[in-house]
Amino acid sequence: MNLTAVRTAEECVTRHFGESLFLANCVALGGRLLDVGSGAGFPGLALKIVAPELAVTLLEPVAKKRAFLKEVARACEFDQVEVRGERLEEFSRAASGASFDFVTARAVGSLEALIRSASRCLAPSGRVCLWLSEPQAAAITRSAQGLVWDPCRPLPLARQRVILVGRNAERHT
Question: Cis (ω within 30 of 0) for the bond into 43?
Fold first, then answer.
């Protein structure tokens, strides 16, 4: 279906599954997760495998990718998985009061806009989790974007790629 640029099984395991699942080593997953730009289901559906109690909302504006995500959730018999077609900005405006414990994003466009919209969707103790290059993470950390950022977590087997986790600054004590 050409859902990703990754073409080999090894690269799929390390880049998609490995990088997605590495978040479980960084934070205790639970509650509600909003995955932005889910594509082929990474990290949202991969995290559902290691944390089956997660209620996962997958935001994917591309129809063929949404169809794929729905089929994977059905075939894997995942409960508490919702696939939505909105972009984050419109979802965050329409879902006022939505309260997610985690908002995740890999390979998504404008980081500043993403962080602003993602912050509106967070529960008081919720976290934004981003898969980024080291230079992107450094720029985001310097600008803060209204969040308090944990130190970057380097991704194993990845060159200059990290997971960056942040919490709302006004809610962080």
Answer: yes
- In order, the DSSP letters of 36-56 are ES-TTTTTHHHHHHH-TT-EE
Cβ 42 vs Cβ 51: under 8 Å: no
| Spatial CA neighbour of 68 closest among 58, 80, 56, 54 | 58
For 48-81, what is each residue's pLDDT tens digit?
999 999 999 999 999 999 999 999 999 999 999 9
Q: Is the pLDDT of residue 107 over 50?
A: yes
Three-state secondary structure call for residue 72: helix
Residue 104, CB-side half-sphere exposure with 13 Å CA sphere: 30
Percent of residues, the chain, with pLDDT higher than 70: 87
Phi, psi of 124 (to 5 degrees): -50, -35
Cα–Cα distances (Å) from 166 to 91, 125, 148, 155, in that order, read: 20, 10, 5, 17
Bridge partners, 67 (sequence order) = none
Of the pLDDT bands very low, low, confident and very high (cuts 50, 70, 90), residue 173 is very low
Enumerate domains of the chain plus CATH numbers.
9-171 (3.40.50.150)
pTM for the predicted model, two decimal places: 0.90
